[in-house]
Amino acid sequence: MNILLTNDDGIFAPGIRALAAELKAAGHKLTIIAPDRERSAASHSLSLRTDIHVKKIADYEYSVSGTPVDCTVIALQKIITEPVDLVISGINAGQNMGEDVLYSGTVAAAVEASLMGMRAIAISINSYSEQKFEVAAKWMCRMLEMGIDQLAKSHGVLNINVPNIDFEAVKGIRLTKTGHRKYYNFIKVIEELGNDFSYRVGGDMPVWDIERGTDAEAVSEGFISITPLGFDLTDGDAYPAILDWLETNHMLHLES
Fold first, then answer.
1. How confident is the model over 40-71, as pLDDT tens digits?
2. Residue 191 pLDDT > 90
3. Could you say which of 23, 69, 123, 234 has the lowest number of CB atoms within 10 Å?
4. What contacts 190, CB < 8 A, 6 or more positions away?
5. Residue 91, preceding bond cis, omega within 30 degrees?
6. Which helix (DSSP H) or strand (DSSP E) does residue 123 occupy?
7. Cβ proximity of 180 and 217 under 8 Å
8. Start-to-end C-alpha separation, the chain
9. pTM here?
10. What is the overall mean pLDDT for the chain?
């Protein structure tokens, strides 16, 4: 396949390098276009009203001074001239489960590709240190051999999370929904002097609600989780209360 590979950890991050090596060994053609530095938690941001610099660092490899979403847009609209079969974002250093998908530049890069009509996958490993990236990379290649790319659809992303364990220790693959997590001590105090304050976002590790059928449960039990993500953010469950409120205030106008 002709694959666009990107991430949010930067073009020289070990995750994207491990995945690139495995994909090339499997015979896939790669174009790697990724941020020139770490862009974790960039979410779906674009670089507006500023120049974005692109540097060719090797054949079919480019670093970008912008966000992960910038990378996807520039890659698909300006750099790659041949049809792209699949966009893969990752391997991210750390999980992208539950609410993490709303902050993740890794997931956002894949989402942007899907919005542009591409098949897209985001893949992450569930550890912030001593990651077994080669294991996640081998599993990604194995899933491609099984045809997982055909499950990715336009206007949807497959979000994959891999436990940080040996290849043979992975128990299997589960279809999951997004779980929930809570952060405590989320803001670190750097300095508080008079009217000047310095803080840093990022504190203790999140505490996961290990609910049945979630990505967090699957990964905690040694399974790879696959969560299909859609883009319709409409909350249908809120309709009855809003309709009742509109009717109570004589503002309800329904199309005949």
1. 999 999 999 999 999 999 999 999 999 999 99
2. no
3. 234
4. 198, 199, 200
5. yes
6. strand 120-125
7. no
8. 50
9. 0.91
10. 93
Tokens 């779906």 found at: 44
HEC profile for 208-240? Answer: EECCCCEHHHHHHCCEEEEEEEECCCCCHHHHH
For residue 32, list its beta bridge partners: 5, 61
| Alpha carbons 83 and 91: distance in angstroms, whole number | 23
Neighbouring CB atoms inside 10 A of 130's CB total 6
User: Do residues 85 and 109 lie in contact, with contact meaning Cβ atoms separated by under 8 Å?
Assistant: no
Nearest-5° angle of CA 47, CA 41, CA 184? 145
Integer Cα distance of 19 and 125 in angstroms: 12
Per-domain residue ranges of the chain: 2-180+209-248
In 151-222 the beta strands, taken as DSSP E runs, fall at: 156-162, 172-175, 180-182, 187-193, 196-201, 207-209
Sign of the C-alpha dihedral computed for residues 213, 215, 220 and 225 taken in this order: positive
Bridge partners (DSSP) of residue 49 are none
**Does residue 210 register a pLDDT over 90?**
no
What CATH number matches the domain at 2-180+209-248, 3.40.640.10, 1.10.620.20, 3.40.1210.10, 3.50.30.50?
3.40.1210.10
For the stretch 133-176, pLDDT in tens is 999 999 999 999 999 999 998 779 999 999 999 999 999 999 99
Of 6, 63, 8, give the one whose Cα is nearest residue 39.
Answer: 8
